Amino acid sequence: MALNGRVLLLNQTYEPLGTVSVARAIIMTFKNTVFVEEFDGDRVLRSAHDEWPVPSVIRRRTYINVRRRREQSGMKRLRIYMRDKFRCQYCGEKRGVAELTFDHILPRSRGGDNSPVNIVTACIKCNNRKSNRTPAEARMPLLTSQTALRVKLERVVLCHYAEARAEWRKYLFMDVHDDRDVMEKVHRERKRRSEQPQIDTDLHRWKGGDPTVLGWNF
Fold it and tell me: How far apart are CA 156 and CA 163, in angstroms?
């Protein structure tokens, strides 16, 4: 069978890290570096003499600290474009990635920061028109509310994945999910980790494959 599809990768403490290919997930399973939390239905990988169930959700046996690398990730731009649905937040036009830019609501030269709450997606034309002004000064009202800008970027991306894979939802939205079995496992694992020495593996040392970073950098 073709090894198509993606597998959700969780941290040791159940936080979503991203996705890896099915092939990479199976290799990680064989190397005993992950636990398999969910299988992908009845899908199996067959060889001439054996068959193995295909994982859908895997969890690292060791903890990886990604927080220090989040704001340095090249995925930040893509996440903000996803949050804004690839639309210029001034004219409302939907554009391709090559035609979009970041705009700082309060320009950085005037004290604006680089946080997602101060950044919106803008087309090149609108960004040039706004220049070094606030939306009010440029008479270019934002189409996005401040409430929407405060939604965590990882939530936006997780929604994208949850729409495609129903079995991932309880791991992507643990704070609102009522699956008691999963939550008990999460609390148990996090309690166990809190009692261990806090020696974290930094992201640049991780050899876990090809993660499509989800939270990971929001």
Answer: 11
Q: Has residue 76 been placed in a domain?
A: no
Residue 30 domain-assigned? yes
C-alpha radius of gyration, the chain, whole number: 20
Write the secondary structure of 88-109 as one string of H (helix), E (strand) and C (coil).
CCCCCCECCHHHEEEEECCCHH
Length, in residues, of the chain: 218
Whether 63 and 89 map to the same domain: the answer is no
Quick check: pTM over 0.90?
no
Residues 169 and 64 in one domain: yes
The Cα–Cα gap between 61 and 9 comes to: 11
Strands (E), the chain: 6-10, 16-21, 34-46, 51-60, 64-65, 100-104, 119-123, 201-202, 212-213
Residue 181: in which H helix or E strand, if any? helix 180-194
Whose tokens are 């009522």? That residue is 178
Categorize the per-residue pLDDT at 41 as very low, low, confident or very high, splitting at 50, 70 and 90.
confident
